[in-house]
# Entry
Amino acid sequence: MTYLAVFDWNSTLLNDTLAVHVATNVCLRTFNVPEITVEHMQDTFTFPLIHFYEKLGVSVDDYLARAEEEGELFVRSYEEAAVDCKIMDGAFELLQWLNDKDVHCMVLSNHLQPHLDADVERLGINPYMKTISGNAERATITKGLSKQIRLEAYMKEHGFAPEKTFIIGDSHEEPEVARHLGLLGISITGGLLSRERLEKYKAHYIIDRLEEVRPIIEKHWKL
# Structure
């Protein structure tokens, strides 16, 4: 049975935390909310985004009344800020090694599917991935379409066993998905959550660099 490697995109394979921070502050200004630092973002970020903005002082009603407008503004601001963002150090080497071992690799992201497809292709990641799974529309980003639902369906469709699957990402979603589906969960620092917050979600491993993934997988899967 084939092994499955599941990668978040933003701040996991793509080094774009600063672009997310810029776009977040652009949106906050429209609500007359003070700008936040990267550290504050990492200490408060949550998903769905509606709850993140609520923590920063934007009421649910106010956000929902402008959800479509804010979604467009965020994506536009993010794309402008992310134009020079690069792939994380060690990503290509890790993906090549997984491919050489016949590990089935996929991207599982909350990014909009058309933008995700374009970024993955532009940055040279597409050849390493069997599938790219993003959100179909902005509404699902605002209100939350569970990565767990998408991944569980994908695993069932393709016959992947939980004990032969790992998931890696920078937020609370990945360790939660890992726990619910019985997967090996890896959290990576430097993204949307601080290390202190990541520790609370109790992934099996917390790493600082993608180079740390290979020895973990070699240990668990005996590759």
DSSP finds twelve helices and six strands in the chain. Residues 67-81 form the longest helix (15 residues). The domain at 4-15+85-221 is CATH 3.40.50.1000 (Rossmann fold). The first strand starts at residue 4 and ends at 7.
